[in-house]
Specification:
The chain has five helices and six strands. Helix 3 packs across helix 4. By secondary structure, the chain is α+β, with helices and mostly antiparallel strands.
């Protein structure tokens, strides 16, 4: 009898693992919680000026090579689209999050993540986005996009992500 319930329990767990909420909460370096508005993600078109709009229509992240903070051509193109988008919504401020892959010490990766976030933020500033609208934070290797331990996973984790904070 108990074995008959096992497939039902497994299916329930699988569905629960695949579900998502309409918002993404992330902890900041100060230990507090920031909530990102991702309204519109599940329902089709994203609300103009929202995080979902940025993600779907512009791209919210850029990637880096191993142990690098250099912005390649693709990263610069994404950041140029982000700058254009941010100029459309002057009341929006953003946090640029720096991330690394799992290799290296925690301290080294926090410093590398900060340099990546700063590189992306400086590029956005060079395109006319006021520095007062941008803050940076490093999560180092603490928040991997892909929990795997291979080159494909590491490549996804070496990134800077632009997250909308709030509208003024």
């Amino acid at each position: 009898m108990k074995l008959a319930l096992l497939p039902v329990a497994a299916a329930t767990l699988l569905l629960a693992a695949c579900s998502s909420t309409p918002s993404d909460s992330t902890a900041n370096a100060g230990g507090g919680i920031t909530t990102t508005d991702t309204s519109g993600l599940a329902g089709g078109a994203a609300a103009a000026g929202s995080q979902a709009d940025l993600e779907q229509n512009v791209g919210d992240r850029v990637y880096f090579g191993y142990d690098s903070t250099a912005l390649d051509e693709e990263a610069r193109a994404t950041l140029q689209r982000q700058a254009t988008w941010l100029q459309q919504y002057p009341s929006v401020s953003a946090t640029v999050e720096g991330h690394t892959d799992e290799r290296g010490t925690r301290e080294y990766n926090l410093a590398l993540g900060e340099r990546r976030a700063s590189a992306a933020a400086r590029y956005l500033s060079s395109l006319g986005i006021g520095e007062s609208r941008l803050v940076t934070i490093s999560y180092g290797k603490d928040r991997p996009a892909d929990p795997g331990s291979d080159e494909a996973a590491w490549a996804k984790n070496r990134r800077a992500v632009t997250v909308i904070n709030a509208t003024n």
